[in-house]
């Protein structure tokens, strides 16, 4: 028994299945996760290694290069990239998309366990982490109120951070902009050397050993020996040592003894006196002060501590945000009134608005699709039968997505919104055929079963062709393929559900609808009834039939039209600008400012305050968050994002789009032209909030990579290219790594003089580093906080160059009296004439080769023109042997995506042809239907050009979608012609088939078109990414539908002698 017959004869059972599907769909809709983008596992592992007080070149040679050599042997490695920066190394191993990172993680850890033994002793153990560019903080929370920033930071870490970290889904809360206490031991060099007869390293060792409790084994003890009640011998673990608990403990710490002077003691009695005790406080000034951090953090002009909340990789962004906001609300009520918590950024807000807007677009599209049916159907019962496919298919699709582990995001919900107009297509075709058969005299049940069975092959074929175009996406290995794969999956789930509804629910409902007046009016002839209720399609049918007869007399016109549209496909794409994805209004503008190397912190801060004043005057700006220099964090994110004192970042959070007339991108362009910056400042402005979440490879603009062995040569080439870009219209805010340098004072050690003092060059450098940055000796636990104890010479000994020249450099030897030997710094170096040199702040490697980078933002040019201009500049640049320049960033990402999309388009055409050939058992017959593809594609390109859209990845997906849906009307039309050819002459069969299929073709086309209209209009945040896709599909549907009605019959007539009547699967 066929599926259609079972559905018609068991209405109660089917109704229960429908009800169950709706209930499960509602539960799934309530429980499915919500996010901005699909949950992607980036195939990158990062090795983070901290090397305290080391410059970028030392980090490169001592840490990065050895780790790169180790990781180069990892299995499946696609690319190895590294960043060597001050104090830290970051090595990133990238694999193919879809790689199981668990095995790679274990292999890298195993290799590093051996390699770490060869690293310098003061290098911290390398840590392996999953690197996810999209793992930006879910929320940034500013805490203000305390005048003492140290006290504020302490309260934040004690009272706020633990509460937020307990929220389910929160992986980490990092603190930025805080101030931390430090106990500084400022020793007097002369007193330490001549009185205590010690050097600074002796003090460090003493502090370590005097602040230690050591597990000392176990000891069997009788209880009575401890003053306890007698009993059996007990075994106790032993701990021996002492803890330093305060500054007073440090001051009173005995570090040496001093024998009484013997001069003038004629009888030698002084030798009998006890020695004088020398305490640390005797040779050093010990103070608690704020640990020095080269930076400021402000929110709306006030110093603030910023909490950055990171979620677990599998956690849902909206749920995490909801939990954190609830915790913040509770904290606000519990904390004293002098603390204020303010949400700086909240990803969930943008996500919710985007999802709401897309949902609204889908709902409006569904309503429009249903309303258009009233133009063709004269019974609300007919409309209900067809419209029931929308909620049912949507419920089934959401259920499949939920149980498949997917979320509702811009891709999946966009796919459902795109499909909403197509969900009724199959139902329309089936219902029209059912009522045609009822008009011929069949009973309602027999008409329902036969009508659905007759159309089953055609609608299965048309649905499979749409599904088939998404199959090639499985083979895409780029991020774009993985990103849009969920959109495709949502469309496939919805269409598969609509097919099931059309073959089961629609015939069941049609079988039990009462007869209508139009049924008898269609008896025998099945021609449309005349009267006041006559539909639009019925009025058009006679005119269309006459037009088809004229076309059949001159079928070669169809070939000319098809040829013209096919040729236009060569020229239309050239009229379009090229991009990756459309601009999206994320209500956030980010401004990165860089001043020349050597600019002090206070100068950078003054420039940023002028920027803050300008931005505060803009009515669209709701909140300002500022980072000047280093934020002072010690977590992984802070290390990677650390900035020097000549750089700053400003986040301008905007009011919602509905409360302003200018988009975030318009504001970014205006800000870029009006920002009050000195001429030497470089600036980079971004408003691509959603795209920025994907990482640098998706940031709009130009990125060039220069590869070669020598850093100086790389920087020279990068500088020349950057200057040419600045002189070229279309490029703004040009930056290069040639400008990201530190100016360094280089003191060369005189090996002869240093050798006489028994001082190697490394010992001299370490001594200076200890004097300027200090040496952490131990840690005190004060009020529940770990406070580092740092030893360094008195500030007067290093306050300027003159003082540094007199610095004592210890050689760890002692003279005959026990006094440590030392040499003056100026005596063993060129301290009187240091050399100013440029040193890289960050050194980047790509596949173990040094790389310099030039970046520029675009002004009035698209990615295609930017590429051509950049290639001209590179071609005119004289490159030394062994050096090359590559396109990187968004251009490399776009190249990979377009290459794969072109392959996907070719495979889609092939798969669609194969589906039709298999369905109709003909190799030549599908050729007529395939002519609809260029007819639709030309309309899609024309719609993009007419509306000023770019040819980007979403637009390409719209054209890919057209390959599947453009042939649907042609399949049904040609299938109907084939059925009528069994009983009618060729031309009559064509005319009759066109007349019968006109109304369902118009209905299915209009419902799909109107379903896409809300998306094409781009209402609200988050819908912009779907606009090019919707416009390409909409334009293609319009041209494809109109031309299919005439060109396909003409081709069928012209090639009727070479085409057999297609077979049908009964």
Any low-confidence stretches, pLDDT <50, length ≥5?
A: 516-534
Number of domains: 5
CATH topology of the largest domain: Multidrug efflux transporter AcrB transmembrane fold
Major sheet: size, sense and barrel closure? 9 strands, antiparallel
Give the assembly state of these chains: single chain
CATH class of the largest domain: Mainly Alpha
Strand content: 15-25%
Number of strands: 31
Count of DSSP H/I helices: 36
Helix vs. strand class: alpha+beta
Radius of gyration: 38 Å
Q: State mean pLDDT (0 to 100 scale).
A: 83
CATH architectural grouping of the largest domain: Up-down Bundle
Basic shape: elongated
Question: Can you offer a commentary on this structure?
Answer:
It is a single chain. With 1066 residues, this protein is an alpha+beta fold. The protein folds into five domains: 1-31 and 376-517, Multidrug efflux transporter AcrB transmembrane domain (Multidrug efflux transporter AcrB transmembrane fold, Up-down Bundle); 43-131, Alpha-Beta Plaits (2-Layer Sandwich); 539-584 and 891-1066, Multidrug efflux transporter AcrB transmembrane fold (Up-down Bundle); 588-743 and 854-890, Alpha-Beta Plaits; 749-839, Multidrug efflux transporter AcrB TolC docking domain, DN and DC subdomains. 49% of the residues lie in helices and 19% in strands. It is built from 36 helices and 31 strands. The strands form eight sheets. Strands 1, 2, 3, 4, 21, 22, 29, 30 and 31 form a nine-stranded antiparallel beta sheet that branches. The longest helix is centred in the middle third of the chain and has 33 residues, at 479-511. 45% of the residues are buried.
């Amino acid at each position: 028994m066929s599926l259609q017959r079972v559905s018609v004869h068991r209405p109660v059972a089917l109704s229960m299945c429908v009800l169950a599907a709706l209930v499960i769909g509602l539960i799934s809709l309530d429980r499915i996760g919500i996010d901005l983008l699909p949950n992607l596992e980036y195939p990158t592992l990062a090795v983070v290694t901290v090397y305290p007080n080391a410059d970028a070149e030392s980090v490169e040679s001592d840490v990065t290069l050895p780790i790169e050599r180790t990781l180069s042997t990892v299995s499946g490695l696609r690319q190895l990239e590294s960043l060597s920066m001050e104090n830290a190394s970051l090595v990133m191993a990238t694999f193919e998309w879809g790689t199981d990172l668990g095995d790679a993680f274990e292999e890298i850890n195993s290799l590093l366990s051996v390699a770490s033994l060869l690293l310098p002793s003061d290098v911290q153990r390398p840590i392996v982490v999953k690197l996810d560019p999209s793992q930006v903080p879910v929320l940034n929370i500013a805490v203000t109120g305390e005048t003492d920033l140290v006290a504020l930071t302490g309260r934040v870490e004690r009272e706020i951070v633990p509460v937020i970290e307990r929220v389910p889904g929160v992986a980490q809360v990092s603190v930025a902009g805080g101030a931390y206490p430090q106990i500084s031991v400022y020793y007097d060099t002369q007193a330490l050397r001549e009185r205590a007869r010690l050097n600074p390293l002796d003090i460090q060792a003493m502090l370590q050993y005097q602040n230690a409790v050591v597990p000392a084994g176990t000891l069997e003890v009788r209880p009575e020996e401890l003053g306890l009640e007698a009993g059996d011998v007990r075994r106790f673990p032993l701990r021996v040592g002492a803890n330093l608990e305060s500054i007073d403990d440090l001051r009173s710490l005995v570090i040496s003894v001093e024998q009484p002077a013997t001069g003038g003691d004629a009888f030698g009695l002084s030798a009998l006196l006890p020695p004088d005790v020398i305490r640390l406080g005797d040779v050093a000034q010990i103070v608690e002060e704020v640990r020095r951090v080269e930076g400021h953090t402000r929110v709306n002009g006030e110093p603030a501590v910023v909490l950055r909340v990171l979620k677990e990789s599998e956690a849902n962004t909206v749920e995490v945000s909801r939990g954190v906001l609830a915790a913040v609300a509770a904290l606000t009520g519990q904390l004293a009134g002098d603390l204020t918590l303010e949400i700086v950024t909240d990803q969930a807000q943008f996500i919710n608005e985007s999802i709401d807007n897309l949902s609204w677009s889908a709902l409006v599209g569904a309503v429009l699709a249903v309303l258009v049916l009233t133009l063709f159907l004269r019974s609300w019962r007919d409309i209900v039968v067809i419209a029931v496919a929308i909620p049912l298919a949507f419920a089934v699709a959401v259920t499949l997505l939920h149980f498949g582990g997917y979320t509702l995001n811009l891709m999946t919900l966009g796919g459902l919104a795109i499909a909403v107009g197509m969900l009724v297509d199959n139902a329309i075709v089936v219902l029209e055929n059912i009522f045609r058969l009822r008009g011929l005299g069949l009973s309602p049940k027999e008409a329902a079963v036969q009508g659905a069975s007759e159309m089953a092959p055609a609608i299965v074929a048309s649905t499979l062709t749409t599904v088939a175009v998404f199959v090639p996406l499985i083979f895409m290995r780029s991020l774009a393929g993985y990103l849009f794969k969920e959109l495709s999956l949502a469309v496939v789930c919805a269409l598969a559900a609509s097919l099931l509804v059309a073959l089961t629910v629609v015939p069941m409902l049609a079988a039990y609808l009462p007869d209508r007046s139009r049924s008898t009016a269609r008896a025998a002839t099945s021609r449309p009834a005349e009267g006041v209720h006559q539909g639009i399609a019925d009025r058009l049918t006679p005119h269309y039939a006459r037009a088809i007869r004229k076309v059949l007399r001159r079928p070669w016109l169809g070939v000319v039209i098809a040829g013209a549209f096919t040729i236009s496909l060569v020229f239309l794409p050239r009229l379009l600008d090229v991009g990756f994805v459309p601009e999206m209004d994320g209500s956030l503008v980010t401004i990165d400012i860089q001043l020349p190397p050597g600019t002090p912190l206070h100068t950078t801060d003054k420039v940023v305050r002028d920027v803050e004043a300008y931005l505060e005057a803009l009515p669209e700006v709701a909140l300002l968050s500022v980072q000047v220099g280093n934020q002072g964090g010690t977590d992984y994110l802070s290390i990677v994002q650390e900035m020097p004192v000549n750089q700053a970042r400003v986040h301008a959070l905007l009011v919602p789009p509905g409360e302003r007339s200018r988009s975030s991108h318009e504001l970014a362009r205006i800000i870029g032209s009006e920002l009050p910056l000195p001429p030497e400042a470089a600036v980079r402005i971004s408003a691509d909030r959603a795209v920025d979440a994907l990482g640098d490879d998706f940031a709009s603009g130009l990125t060039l990579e220069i590869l070669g062995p020598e850093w100086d040569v790389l920087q020279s080439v990068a500088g020349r290219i950057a200057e040419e870009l600045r002189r070229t219209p279309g490029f703004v805010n040009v930056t290069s790594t040639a400008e990201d340098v530190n100016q360094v004072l280089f003191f060369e050690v005189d090996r002869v003089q240093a050798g006489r003092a028994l001082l190697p060059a490394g010992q001299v450098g370490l001594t200076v580093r200890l004097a300027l940055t200090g040496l952490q000796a131990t840690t005190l636990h004060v009020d529940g906080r770990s406070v580092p104890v740092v030893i360094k010479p008195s500030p007067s000994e290093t306050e300027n160059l003159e003082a540094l020249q007199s610095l004592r450099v210890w050689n760890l030897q002692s003279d005959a009296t026990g006094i440590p030997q030392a040499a003056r710094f100026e005596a063993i170096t060129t301290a009187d004439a240091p050399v100013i040199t440029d040193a890289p702040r960050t050194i980047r490697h790509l596949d173990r080769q040094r790389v310099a980078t030039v970046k520029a933002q675009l002004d009035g040019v698209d990615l295609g023109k930017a590429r051509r201009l950049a290639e001209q500049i590179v071609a005119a640049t004289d490159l030394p042997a062994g050096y090359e320049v590559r396109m990187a960033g968004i251009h490399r990402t776009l190249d990979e995506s377009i290459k794969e999309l072109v392959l996907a388009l070719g495979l889609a055409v092939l798969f669609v042809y194969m589906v039709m050939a298999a369905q109709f058992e003909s190799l030549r017959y599908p050729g007529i239907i395939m002519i609809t593809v260029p007819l639709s594609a030309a309309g899609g390109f024309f719609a993009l050009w007419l509306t000023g859209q770019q040819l980007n990845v979403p637009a390409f997906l719209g054209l890919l979608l057209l390959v599947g849906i453009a042939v649907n009307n042609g399949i049904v039309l040609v299938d109907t012609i084939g059925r009528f050819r069994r009983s009618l002459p060729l031309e009559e069969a064509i005319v009759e088939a066109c007349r019968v299929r006109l109304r369902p073709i118009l209905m299915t086309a209009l419902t799909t078109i109107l379903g896409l209209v809300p998306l094409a209009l781009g209402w609200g945040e988050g819908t912009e990414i779907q606009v090019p896709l919707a416009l390409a599909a909409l334009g293609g549907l319009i041209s494809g539908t109109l031309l299919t009605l005439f060109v396909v019959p003409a081709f069928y007539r012209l090639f009727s002698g070479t085409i057999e009547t297609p077979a049908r699967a009964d």
